[in-house]
Amino acid sequence: MSASPIVDADLEPAGTPIVAGLPMPTFKRIGVEPISGACGCEISGVDLRRPLDEETLAEVMKAFDQFLVIVFRDQDLTPEQHKAFSRYFGEITELPQAPTYGGHQDMQEVRREAYEPENVVPSFEHFHTDSPFLPQPPKCIVMRALEVPQWGGDTAFSNAHLVYEHLSDGMKALLDGLQVVYSGKDIWAKNEKLPPEKRLRLRESHSFTEDQLENIHPAVRVHPNTGRKALFATSAYFKRFVGWSEEESRALLAYLQGLAQHLHYHCRVKWKKDTLLVWDNRFTLHRGVHDFKYERRHLIRTTVAGERPLGPSDWRPLR
């Protein structure tokens, strides 16, 4: 398979609708409503309590590849049904830092009680990707809402393909050759030094080795199938660019993080009870919006294992 062409938003072919940076696909088995022009869609006509037939599954995956964030409403699933749907995307994996859900070691929860401060959930102040320090960072997250505030508590996403594609040629050339050191080694030690009321809710123990908690990855990540590039430099767990000082690294990272904040790269998903959301953790950045108080927000999730990130010099077209 050769690389799919990348469409320049400034050179849209006349009459061809463009969404998420690419021509809008055709769907026959499912309903697809884009959330924004940058990423995200709501899918209707699918009951995730039951196995999906091949044609329907193929269209769900087409929507996932196109929009990077797919949303299903009114999906009252058991944990096992949640896991069964997740496995369509790949192997479910654990995370070292995320609290587990009940007796399910392969599920995590994101929970904030009505009386708790915002910081008990690692919401981060900037858009980020989950666990980029792992040798194979997650491919995607499958998350469902159990209880949500009446207002607020959305999750926002930024399309990292578009962030990269709108850079100058000179900046692209610089980033194409950079690597990033990501580390999750010190998150627990840093948390212990904080006053109890300011600590994050983290998993207390895990079986990951020290080597698994720190890795070097490309600053520009390439989609393994299409060859489309995306920014993969995020502030969460960031240490430095390889060969750069920490001061130099932070200056460039601040500029790149500023670009990811631009609204024309975003979509924002409003949670409702039994909303299920899948996002591509490789090619989007995300953040929770903690604009609510005195209400409970409880989400549960599975994490699907990904491949080792490919840089521009690593990628080869599939044959």
Question: How does this model look, in words?
Answer:
With 319 residues, this protein is of the alpha+beta class. It has a single domain, classed as Clavaminate synthase-like (Double-stranded beta-helix, 4-Layer Sandwich). The protein is built from 6 helices and 19 strands. Strands 3, 4, 5, 6, 7, 8, 9, 17 and 19 form a 9-stranded mixed sheet that branches. A 3-stranded antiparallel sheet has the order 16-10-18. A 3-stranded antiparallel sheet has the order 12-11-15. The N terminus is likely disordered.
Task: Give me a quick take on this structure.
This protein is α+β, with helices and mostly antiparallel strands. It has 6 helices and 19 strands. The longest helix is centred in the C-terminal third of the chain and has 15 residues, at 246-260.
Can you count the beta strands?
Answer: 19
CATH class: Alpha Beta
Summarize the amount of helix as a percent range. Answer: 10-25%
Q: What percent of residues are in strands?
A: 25-35%
- Biggest sheet architecture: 9 strands, mixed
Shape: globular
Radius of gyration over all CA atoms, rounded: 19 Å
The helix count comes to: 6
The CATH H-level superfamily is: Clavaminate synthase-like
Roughly what is the average pLDDT, rounded to an integer? 90
Number of domains: 1
CATH third-level topology: Double-stranded beta-helix
End-to-end separation in angstroms reads 5 Å
- Can you tell me the residue ranges where pLDDT is under 50 for at least 5 consecutive residues? 1-12
